[in-house]
Design brief:
The longest helix has 27 residues. The radius of gyration is 21 Å and the shape is flat. It has one domain. The mean pLDDT is 79. The protein contains three helices and no strands. The chain is mostly helical.
Length: 86
């Protein structure tokens, strides 16, 4: 006898962003070593507090830029070393 689970399409799943990132990943080490709270003080005067639309968290913007400009080139160099057997 074949059974059908028609209620499955209404089920949800909770996924945490940290779950796919390995515990020993470089970004986790950076998170522990760097205090990003100082960044809020640095950029506070650049944001308007009484009008305008909600901003993106400056720490999120910094982390994205850091990952793009710093970690990607390192990853590319490591990949080149693997291919060329340095």
């Amino acid at each position: 006898m074949q059974t059908r689970d028609n209620n499955r399409k209404n089920q949800g799943e909770i996924v945490f962003i940290d779950d796919p990132v390995p515990k020993d990943h470089l970004l986790r080490k950076i998170e522990k070593a760097v205090d990003f709270s100082k960044l809020y003080e640095i950029v506070e005067e650049l944001y308007c507090h009484n009008n305008g639309r909600p901003s993106t968290d400056p720490v999120v913007l910094f982390r994205a830029r850091f990952q793009k400009n710093f970690l990607r080139p390192i990853r590319a160099c490591l990949k080149i070393e693997e291919v060329t057997d340095f």
